[in-house]
Amino acid sequence: MSEEARDNTRGTSPQERVAVREENRAGARFRVFGLRSRFGELIDLSARGMRIRTTRRWHEGFTRRLTISSGSRSVTVDARCIWCRQDSMFSHTVGLAFEQVTPEQATVLWDLTRLHAEEKAQPLGAG
């Protein structure tokens, strides 16, 4: 979160801070089903990043190269761990930001999102 955004959240409730973070998030995220990488199951996906459910903890700031594929469509991107939350003994949810996505990679990410998005899905956080 930028310094300016942080200043704007002082003295606000947790719900208001979440709303500010959502406003600052670039790009819509879509819940996806049946999409995996070798690191785990994707929960949601956008052109800027994703959430993934995995069995191991990821350390914040660490970057990994991962491939997301479905049938003949695949894309390999570098993703930096922004946060990691332990859900249970062997389950972690990880928030990742893609690094230096090319226009070609963004096109494939959008294609995979459309193929695997929940039917009639709206961007997460929308209405």
Topology:
Layout: H1 3-9, H2 14-24, E1 30-31, E2 36-37, E3 40-45, E4 49-54, E5 63-70, E6 73-88, E7 91-99, H3 103-116
Antiparallel strand pairs: 1-3, 2-3, 3-4, 4-7, 5-6, 6-7
Structural commentary:
This protein has 127 residues and is of the alpha+beta class. The chain has a domain of 88 residues: Thrombin, subunit H, CATH 2.40.10.220. The chain has 3 helices and 7 strands, in the order H-H-E-E-E-E-E-E-E-H. Strands 1, 2, 3, 4, 5, 6 and 7 form a 7-stranded antiparallel beta sheet that branches. A hairpin with a 2-residue loop joins strand 6 and strand 7. The chain is globular.
Keyphrases for this structure?
25% helix; seven-stranded antiparallel beta sheet; Thrombin, subunit H; 127 residues
Strand content: 35-45%
Identify the CATH homologous superfamily of the domain at 29-116: predicted glycosyltransferase like domains
> Could you estimate the helical fraction of the residues in percent?
25-40%
Q: Oligomerization state of this entry? A: single chain
Would you tell me which CATH topology of the domain at 29-116 applies? Thrombin, subunit H
